[in-house]
Amino acid sequence: MQSNMTSSAMEGSTKRKQEEENLESLNVVPKRQVIVPTKKPQVHYIPLKTGLCYDVRMRYHAKIFTSYFEYIDPHPEDPRRIYRIYKILAENGLINDTMLSGVDDIGDIMLKIPVREATADEILEVHSREHLEFLESTTTMNREVLLKETEKGDSVYFNNDSYMSAKLSCGGAIEACKAVVEGKVKNALAVVRPPGHHSEPESSGGFCLFSNVAVAAKNILKNYPESVRKIMILDWDIHHGNGTQKAFYQDERVLYVSLHRFEAGKYYPGTVQGQYDQCGEGKGEGFNCNITWPTGGVGDAEYMWAFEQIVMPMGREFQPDLVIISSGFDAADGDVIGQCHVTPSCYGHMTHMLKSLARGNLVVVLEGGYNLDSIAISALSVAKTLIGEPPDELPDPLKDPKPEALEMIYKVIKIQSKYWKCFKRRHGNYNINFSEVASDTLATKTFPLQTAIRQQQYYNLFKEYDFVKFPTANLKLPDDLILCSPNIHTAETVIIIVHDTPQIWLEKDIISNTVDPCSSIIIDSTLDFLKWAHNRKYGIIDVNIPQSLIYGDENPDNYSSLINAQEILLFLWDNHIKFLNEVNKIAFIGVGDSVSGVVHLLGHRDTKERVKAVINFMADKQLKPLVPLVDESLSDWYFKNSLVFSNRTHPCWGDKENKKPRKKYGRVLRCDTDGLNSTIEERFDEATDFILDSFEEWSDSE
Amino acid sequence: MQSNMTSSAMEGSTKRKQEEENLESLNVVPKRQVIVPTKKPQVHYIPLKTGLCYDVRMRYHAKIFTSYFEYIDPHPEDPRRIYRIYKILAENGLINDTMLSGVDDIGDIMLKIPVREATADEILEVHSREHLEFLESTTTMNREVLLKETEKGDSVYFNNDSYMSAKLSCGGAIEACKAVVEGKVKNALAVVRPPGHHSEPESSGGFCLFSNVAVAAKNILKNYPESVRKIMILDWDIHHGNGTQKAFYQDERVLYVSLHRFEAGKYYPGTVQGQYDQCGEGKGEGFNCNITWPTGGVGDAEYMWAFEQIVMPMGREFQPDLVIISSGFDAADGDVIGQCHVTPSCYGHMTHMLKSLARGNLVVVLEGGYNLDSIAISALSVAKTLIGEPPDELPDPLKDPKPEALEMIYKVIKIQSKYWKCFKRRHGNYNINFSEVASDTLATKTFPLQTAIRQQQYYNLFKEYDFVKFPTANLKLPDDLILCSPNIHTAETVIIIVHDTPQIWLEKDIISNTVDPCSSIIIDSTLDFLKWAHNRKYGIIDVNIPQSLIYGDENPDNYSSLINAQEILLFLWDNHIKFLNEVNKIAFIGVGDSVSGVVHLLGHRDTKERVKAVINFMADKQLKPLVPLVDESLSDWYFKNSLVFSNRTHPCWGDKENKKPRKKYGRVLRCDTDGLNSTIEERFDEATDFILDSFEEWSDSE
């Protein structure tokens, strides 16, 4: 052991240097100090200040009031937004400006960066001349024309000062970036408005007139080609920065990363460009990243996770020379437009993380954010982090991210893993391109896992209960989809179990993306029902619906598990069950997506006479409505004769107490647990009791 | 779209406030400024300085020279270590001390924290009285006794000043923590020696006399019970901090996280306590985390990954009130003891990340680090981060972590996921405790995946090539392990394929830790060989060796895939192949771990007459040596008649060029790719050509 800790292996190159030093400053036994420094250090380290852009003239752009109501309830993109941020900085001593008048000397901590109007040339780097000229024309419009143009636009308003304010806002962003790039300040906060990120090259939109951040980035890249070759724009405004994205969609010099609500395009701006699969084009492919929240209500947990899993690894790999935050504070807790819950300390943490990129060259440019209190405390937290203070603790670091947000983050990592090394590492080694498997030479030596699993199920059911295959005839599907007990033609009571391919619990090798089949197990939760039915000597039909068919002879291109489930169940009813003359009591047990086949059958055939009970386990799958084709009363019948079990966290329960799914979905019950296996385990007794009751309540069945 | 962006939903509570504010400061059309602030901000924000502990008296502890050699090549724990750090801080202007004499006023950026000797009471919070008294006794020992005690100790040395230096070092750590906790400084750097983290309660060790950080943490917890209830100690010294770990192993108030080389206990201190599975005991269970590098040579990529994946999520969840870094710089690039490559900027990044915990309450205490240049530039980078500068860019952010380090990080996450929510999320939801499956009710509805896969293989081979089962008789194993072609009793030439259960490529659901069996595929790379052999009308035997048996009737407790592979191959040879009288040419194709069965057979039976070729695909598995039981010349024979293909990155190739595995491992060849499937694909033609050649070179076979 000891040898590890000795210096015997000390390198030769450093040895000589150390020998020289020994003579000079080695001091081992004598207590008297003998220090003769080689040079007298007289360097004074003077840390740079944080830059601040603010100009009262940016408050002149405002909505023209047309009613008293607007005075009580002003437009959210309110001139006070920048004032309130400036004020809170002063109140907390980060700047010295007792009168809040926007003085030039603001003290020792922050440095005022003078704001100027962006020039036409600068603006034309991003915008069209038409767009510039239209905005210029607003300076001389009369009230009526201004109101008309406001009416015409996509969520924008104009007055005669809009053009100046917009040029100042844009110029402020440029000057903030310049001050950082030129080393005048260590980083900067541009408290500017109107915001910019929705403004596309040809048009205003979403309260935005000029695309401030995009104009700044383009001009920095143009004017500092040596020192700034790559810029990362991180847009944490709750809306997608469609304008910024568009400006750099084909540009590999700018990595645009946006976190925003998308909700299948229902959230503003709602264009397909905001979707997570938009990764850039041409040279810019791989340099656009949309992290799209599928729902509102996200907060610190989701943002921290996205930063840790996506933003920071990506940023480090990109190696930007400058980072610009498109800093809307409308994801902040308290913002009624954003309806999210990012806390001020989370904004601090995100700023702190981004400071570790680009040697700290960071510019924060205000975008949206409409709760005046929320944007003030959020901006204060960002400013404190910029001047060098550590961020506050997160109020609830134990909170779990929402599953749907986790899923989205995973999807983004997956799609971006095509471009970024850091994600390949995380997501596993995609040495097999899955979509190419069918045509590939690999096809000869691969087969789908589900085939093996169904075969094993058949083998077990055959061995344990003498099950046989039910002919599937012209369905053009594997012949082991429908299995049945040997007593099927004599039984009076039949349980029909309709299920997806069972789940597998496994250990995955993170390096190769493969699993060890020896330590992986298949969990077939329906076996409990099979055993129960077998013990009661019921006839049993077991139907397995594959969710997809990967390849093979079965024409997989137009395969749909939904249609397939419906077809299989209709086939089963029309060709087999109808002719089982002894059967007078049937119960369906549906598990997973396959339930759609059961519900479809119940709506499309007259089954009421014989079907006594329907038990469906949905876990997190979408509820399936019974659409009655023949008999309007079927919804009531279904509600009365079914139990539909959902996950505790199933979206159908919404955020409100006492919300109930409608009758056409059956009698939906909320489990205490989540997941197919857990909910089946939890409700097994309830389900079987319900079936037994329904079989005996013969007289009620009409 | 537009409706999303209007203020119609503005909350009532904020409305009234805003109305009031409207009267006061809303300013929309007039260009004249009308600002009447509610209060005049006169606060001045004064950021705290960073504390610095340094005292020249800590340099008096030194090794007593016994030869001129020690003067040329001094002991690595060299008194100049702290001087060099102090000097570089002065040279870079972080402190003002032109004479480097350790003055009290060191300028505007850092604040000198006076160092004092730790008191006996403080030390006794961690150490035994015997240990304290022994160290006290060294103050009066004569040279001979000192040398004798130095000789006796575990990598420690003593002189008459050791006790004072050690008390100062320990006191410095305490005072640094106190200054931070009391809010006198924002954070602190304690440039102290001798180091502390190897010193256990009863003994010195590894250059350490008192366990400085442990003593400081214990005393802070004792004296500031209100403000400091939890402390996180992050130990990035390249050696395991066995002393610190021991002091808090049963203490839930202190989370100890160490990153260190372990190498199966071969690296100092080399006790089992340093292993990654040591997670704490009793109340302290879950509050100890060892991240153990299985090899030297790690650097920024591995440390950044470990911080991002383990240290930071864990730290945020722990919510410490104070973070102490046990800051050895022996993982630094250039340290010949650590032999790792952490760069100064990586130390900066790690410090920056840790600053985001505990509201920035961070104390950095020096431990090891033996290259004087490396520790100086590393400490400078840490100090700059402490005063608030952003860290430099990593020199090579694109570098991939070593696979074995990734694997270790994954193992740590897995073992710690028992205690930490953040890892459950990442590692998947362990709702099935795997080890309990056998006894659990789940056993009735689960079955091992490998059984299903082998069954599928059998079905395919039966359908395609009419394969049948070979009886396995008394082996007490599944009956489908050995399959053979129908011509096995008439063929002259036989190919015996011995393989592990094939790999599965899959999509995993990160939330439930389950996979979709429909989009997962089994990759059976040996099928190419089967097809080839079938086309040449060879007899074929296909042997599947399960790597483990999870449960079932087959007595899994003492199952070993190694022994199993050996037994199955011997059984096959003794009971079947021996009696295949027509066969005069045999080739083995081994894949994966199962190769051990083939090599064992070749060493234990006289097979030379009939076995003409052996092809083994090892991927990343350990090479299997042929141990000749009967015939010493077998190693040569094996080398001549085999091809053993390894991954490109297989450890057998080491770091040096031209390293060759020994002959007993066969003719080992390095593939250009990694992984079983890729290497088989790459070398398929070479392997089959080799077999064909060997079959025809009849005359050479003796």
TrEMBL record, chains A, B:
<dbReference type="GO" id="GO:1990342">
    <property type="term" value="C:heterochromatin island"/>
</dbReference>
<dbReference type="InterPro" id="IPR000286">
    <property type="entry name" value="HDACs"/>
</dbReference>
<keyword id="KW-0378">Hydrolase</keyword>
<feature type="domain" description="Arb2-like">
    <location>
        <begin position="448"/>
        <end position="698"/>
    </location>
</feature>
<dbReference type="GO" id="GO:0031934">
    <property type="term" value="C:mating-type region heterochromatin"/>
</dbReference>
<protein>
    <recommendedName>
        <fullName>Histone deacetylase</fullName>
        <ecNumber>3.5.1.98</ecNumber>
    </recommendedName>
</protein>
<dbReference type="GO" id="GO:0005721">
    <property type="term" value="C:pericentric heterochromatin"/>
</dbReference>
<dbReference type="GO" id="GO:0070824">
    <property type="term" value="C:SHREC complex"/>
</dbReference>
<comment type="function">
    <text>Responsible for the deacetylation of lysine residues on the N-terminal part of the core histones (H2A, H2B, H3 and H4). Histone deacetylation gives a tag for epigenetic repression and plays an important role in transcriptional regulation, cell cycle progression and developmental events.</text>
</comment>
<dbReference type="GO" id="GO:1902794">
    <property type="term" value="P:siRNA-independent facultative heterochromatin formation"/>
</dbReference>
<comment type="similarity">
    <text>Belongs to the histone deacetylase family. HD type 2 subfamily.</text>
</comment>
<keyword id="KW-0805">Transcription regulation</keyword>
<dbReference type="InterPro" id="IPR023801">
    <property type="entry name" value="His_deacetylse_dom"/>
</dbReference>
<dbReference type="GO" id="GO:0003682">
    <property type="term" value="F:chromatin binding"/>
</dbReference>
<dbReference type="GO" id="GO:0033553">
    <property type="term" value="C:rDNA heterochromatin"/>
</dbReference>
<feature type="compositionally biased region" description="Polar residues">
    <location>
        <begin position="1"/>
        <end position="11"/>
    </location>
</feature>
<dbReference type="GO" id="GO:0031078">
    <property type="term" value="F:histone H3K14 deacetylase activity, hydrolytic mechanism"/>
</dbReference>
<dbReference type="InterPro" id="IPR019154">
    <property type="entry name" value="Arb2-like_domain"/>
</dbReference>
<dbReference type="GO" id="GO:0140720">
    <property type="term" value="C:subtelomeric heterochromatin"/>
</dbReference>
<dbReference type="Pfam" id="PF00850">
    <property type="entry name" value="Hist_deacetyl"/>
</dbReference>
<keyword id="KW-0156">Chromatin regulator</keyword>
<keyword id="KW-0539">Nucleus</keyword>
<dbReference type="GO" id="GO:0042802">
    <property type="term" value="F:identical protein binding"/>
</dbReference>
<dbReference type="InterPro" id="IPR023696">
    <property type="entry name" value="Ureohydrolase_dom_sf"/>
</dbReference>
<dbReference type="GO" id="GO:0045944">
    <property type="term" value="P:positive regulation of transcription by RNA polymerase II"/>
</dbReference>
<keyword id="KW-0678">Repressor</keyword>
<dbReference type="GO" id="GO:0070823">
    <property type="term" value="C:HDA1 complex"/>
</dbReference>
<dbReference type="GO" id="GO:0005730">
    <property type="term" value="C:nucleolus"/>
</dbReference>
<dbReference type="GO" id="GO:0030466">
    <property type="term" value="P:silent mating-type cassette heterochromatin formation"/>
</dbReference>
<dbReference type="GO" id="GO:0000122">
    <property type="term" value="P:negative regulation of transcription by RNA polymerase II"/>
</dbReference>
<keyword id="KW-0804">Transcription</keyword>
<dbReference type="Pfam" id="PF09757">
    <property type="entry name" value="Arb2-like"/>
</dbReference>
<feature type="domain" description="Histone deacetylase">
    <location>
        <begin position="75"/>
        <end position="385"/>
    </location>
</feature>
<dbReference type="GO" id="GO:0031509">
    <property type="term" value="P:subtelomeric heterochromatin formation"/>
</dbReference>
<dbReference type="GO" id="GO:0000791">
    <property type="term" value="C:euchromatin"/>
</dbReference>
<dbReference type="InterPro" id="IPR017321">
    <property type="entry name" value="Hist_deAcase_II_yeast"/>
</dbReference>
<dbReference type="GO" id="GO:0031508">
    <property type="term" value="P:pericentric heterochromatin formation"/>
</dbReference>
<dbReference type="GO" id="GO:0000183">
    <property type="term" value="P:rDNA heterochromatin formation"/>
</dbReference>
<dbReference type="InterPro" id="IPR037138">
    <property type="entry name" value="His_deacetylse_dom_sf"/>
</dbReference>
<feature type="region of interest" description="Disordered">
    <location>
        <begin position="1"/>
        <end position="24"/>
    </location>
</feature>
